[in-house]
């Protein structure tokens, strides 16, 4: 596959760290795009190949990493640079770091070449308002959200409360805002008609860096066992997915 | 590969000495050769080279050429064997062919005439050119060159189809959903404005390269690999090609945009292009091959300039599995099998198949079995022209276009262009650096299909 990552300067180190834990699991060509719109009008490229011995197989798995610094106006035309580098006929995943610039050429272009757009809405400062923008992309590209993936085990715990949870009125979440909104949106969409206004499930949130506590009508939900997945694990899981996820899309609409 | 009895004579109107011409050729070889430049090899070749500055409109010009060629016969033992390579403007074609024909000596050795495109502007002009050629040369002496046919992967199409037992039984309407052929260039007109303005994508690419790729993809197995056997089968395909109607062909012209990170001008802003030009830089079509093998199987083709990337591919998309016995979610990743033939760049073949994603459940994902020329064979691939010119020297016309093929190609193009004359296109209609106009997407979406994205 081709894995494209759009990482503004603030996210560059995090993008590299996540990638380091990913390459061994996903043989790919990774194209790291570092936009520098205020920089000189140029493209700077670094290419590397990293190979890993795979356990049980006498061969190495290699990943190519192409780092592109897009300076000046080049930052507005990423697709024209990425297109010739895509591996023919293999799926293209785009990991967008931070909140996408809705409607801007760089986002529109990359959406146009990706099979799947991977975001982490917990990186966005303006949720739930930004979800309204995200919804407009659903018919154009399959979307994955790492915030959604991170709450997978918690959704399992909540689902286990069926049928009692159908009468829930209040969801309390300690964790990132996006994770909490998506959990509430998921419950609303699964239990009701999917419209935020029509449902009465209230969300009470306490801010925390990680999703650490969920309660339904004041009753705490069992904490999932094991340590939470790493950013690399979460992205890796998204890279195994194809096609649209209607349950996630409904959760976003109801968040 | 070149024999001792060999010489190269450059002929053009430009006044220059043989020495200056050889120096220019040396520079070109140093810049463009796929192999490392070797001075001793070059010295040997340079000894055989000479230049004649002449104008074919002037009778004495041909005499000068003949004189040099006879000198080569004596000095290098070329025995009157001649390969004429005509890369000349259409206006000069008749004069040159006639002059060469008139000066053929009865006792000379063999003569072969390599003719570069454009071979005509429409069916009538191509027929006229063929008429001139026939007047002086036999068909087996004429080598109409289409460099695409010299590419390894294009020839490998024949090997793939006819040297492997597994493909031919499924190479038909019952197993193939459709075929997509893409000839995409990222460059613009690159100094060829004069030619391109009168030719456009349909004459520059569609009439020759694209239709030849269709012919090789769709042809029946030839009884042997001789020139006429192969070309007999190709011409049958070309004769049976048709478009279902004017709506099955779309054209486009690029506007400004970004290509490989650089901002590029629109076609009408290129040097030498008319400000209101209606020349198409993009053409896409749905074609059918009306025979038992391919009836109702669409061939979607597209070619254009300033597209998102340089790529020539033939994609054979097979029918979907009729009934996947997996849960609904597993089917999300299921795509039809595609046999993708990469003509350029990265020549090779890959087959897309569905495979189970490791782990619990039954999740299907498309994976590829790849054959890359560079990986399987460690020898460098010859340039298409190397192969074709050597074939012409050996008298093998298999990879050259015969007169009747050219006729059929132009007949199809004429029918398309005739429909275009009735309306005035709204150009530009696609941005440079994209995959072409929206109407091209609509062309294929109407059938519930889509273009390969990259």
Detail the topology: elements first, then pairings.
The complex is a heterodimer of chains A (255) and B (454).
Chain A: E1 2-6, H1 12-20, E2 29-36, E3 43-53, E4 60-71, H2 78-82, E5 92-96, H3 105-113, E6 116-119, H4 129-135, E7 142-145, H5 146-150, H6 152-159, E8 170-175, H7 177-191, E9 202-207, E10 213-216, E11 219-220, H8 231-239, H9 246-254
Parallel strand pairs in A: 1-2, 1-5, 2-4, 5-6, 6-7, 8-9
Antiparallel strand pairs in A: 3-4, 8-10, 10-11
Helix pairs in contact in A: 7-9
Chain B: E1 8-12, H1 18-32, H2 39-47, E2 49-53, H3 59-76, E3 82-86, H4 90-102, E4 111-115, H5 123-136, E5 142-144, H6 152-162, E6 176-184, H7 193-218, H8 227-240, E7 241-242, E8 249-252, E9 254-255, E10 257-259, E11 262-264, E12 282-289, E13 299-304, E14 311-318, E15 338-344, E16 348-356, E17 364-372, H9 373-376, H10 384-394, H11 403-420, E18 430-431, H12 438-445
Parallel strand pairs in B: 1-2, 3-4, 4-5, 6-13, 9-18
Antiparallel strand pairs in B: 6-14, 7-12, 8-12, 10-11, 12-13, 14-15, 15-16, 16-17
Helix pairs in contact in B: 4-5, 5-11, 7-8, 7-11, 8-11
């Amino acid at each position: 596959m081709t894995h494209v990552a759009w990482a503004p300067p603030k996210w560059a180190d995090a993008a590299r760290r996540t990638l380091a834990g990913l390459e061994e699991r996903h043989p790919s060509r990774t194209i790291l795009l570092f936009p520098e719109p205020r920089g000189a009008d140029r493209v700077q490229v670094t290419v590397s190949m990293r190979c890993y011995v795979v356990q049980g197989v006498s061969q190495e798995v290699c990943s190519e990493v192409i780092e592109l610094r897009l300076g000046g106006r080049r930052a507005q035309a990423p697709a024209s640079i990425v297109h010739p580098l895509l591996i023919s006929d293999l799926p293209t995943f785009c990991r967008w770091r931070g909140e996408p610039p809705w409607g801007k050429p760089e986002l529109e272009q990359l959406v146009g070449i990706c099979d799947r757009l991977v975001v982490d809405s917990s990186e966005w400062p303006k949720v739930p308002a930004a979800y309204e923008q995200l919804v407009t992309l659903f018919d154009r590209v399959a979307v994955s959200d790492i915030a959604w993936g991170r709450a997978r085990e918690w959704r399992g715990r909540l689902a286990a409360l069926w049928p009692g949870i159908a009468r829930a009125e209040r969801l309390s979440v300690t964790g990132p805002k996006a994770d909490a909104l998506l959990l509430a949106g998921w419950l609303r969409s699964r239990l009701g008609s999917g419209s935020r206004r029509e449902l009465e499930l209230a969300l009470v949130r306490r801010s925390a860096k990680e999703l650490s506590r969920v309660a339904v009508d004041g009753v705490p939900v069992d904490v999932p066992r094991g340590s939470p997945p790493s950013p690399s694990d979460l992205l890796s899981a998204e890279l195994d997915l194809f096609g649209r996820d209607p349950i996630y899309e409904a959760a976003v609409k109801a968040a | 590969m070149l024999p001792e009895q060999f010489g190269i004579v450059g002929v053009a109107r430009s006044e220059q000495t043989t020495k200056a011409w050889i120096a220019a050729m040396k520079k070109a070889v140093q810049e463009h050769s796929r192999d490392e430049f070797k001075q001793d090899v070059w010295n040997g070749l340079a000894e055989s080279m000479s230049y004649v500055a002449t104008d074919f409109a002037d009778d004495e010009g041909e005499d000068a050429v003949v004189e040099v060629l006879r000198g080569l016969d004596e000095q290098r033992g070329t025995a009157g064997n001649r390969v004429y390579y005509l890369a000349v403007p259409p206006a000069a074609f008749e004069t040159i062919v006639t002059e060469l024909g008139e000066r053929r000596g009865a006792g000379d050795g063999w003569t072969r005439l390599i003719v570069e495109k454009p071979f005509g502007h429409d069916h009538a002009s191509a027929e006229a050119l063929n008429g001139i050629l026939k007047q002086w040369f036999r068909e087996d002496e004429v080598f109409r060159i289409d460099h695409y046919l010299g590419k390894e992967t294009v020839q490998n199409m024949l090997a793939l189809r006819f040297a492997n037992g597994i493909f031919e039984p499924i190479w038909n309407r019952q197993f193939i959903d459709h075929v997509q052929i893409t000839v995409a260039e990222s460059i613009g007109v690159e100094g060829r404005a004069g030619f391109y303005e009168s030719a456009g994508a349909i004459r520059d690419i569609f009439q020759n390269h694209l239709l030849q790729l269709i012919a090789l993809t769709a042809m029946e197995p030839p009884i042997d690999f001789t020139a006429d056997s192969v070309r007999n089968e190709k011409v049958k395909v070309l004769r049976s090609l048709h478009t279902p109607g004017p709506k099955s062909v779309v054209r486009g012209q690029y506007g400004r945009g970004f290509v490989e990170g650089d901002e590029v001008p629109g076609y009408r802003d290129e040097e030498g292009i008319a400000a209101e030009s209606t020349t198409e830089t993009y053409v896409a079509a749905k074609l059918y091959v009306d025979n038992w093998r391919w009836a109702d199987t669409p061939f979607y083709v597209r070619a254009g300039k300033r597209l998102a990337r340089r790529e020539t591919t033939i994609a054979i998309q097979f029918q979907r599995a009729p009934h996947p016995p997996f849960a609904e979610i597993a089917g999300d990743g299921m795509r039809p099998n595609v046999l993708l033939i990469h003509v350029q760049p990265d020549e090779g073949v890959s087959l897309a198949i569905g495979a189970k994603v490791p782990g619990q459940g039954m999740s299907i994902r498309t994976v590829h079995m790849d054959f890359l020329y560079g990986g399987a064979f460690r020898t460098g691939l010859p340039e298409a022209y190397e192969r074709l010119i050597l074939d012409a020297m050996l008298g093998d016309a298999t990879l050259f276009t015969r007169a009747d093929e050219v006729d059929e190609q132009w007949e199809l193009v004429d029918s398309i262009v005739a429909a275009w004359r009735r309306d005035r296109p709204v150009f530009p209609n696609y941005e440079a650096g994209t995959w072409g106009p929206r109407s091209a997407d609509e062309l294929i979406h109407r059938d519930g299909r889509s273009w390969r994205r990259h």
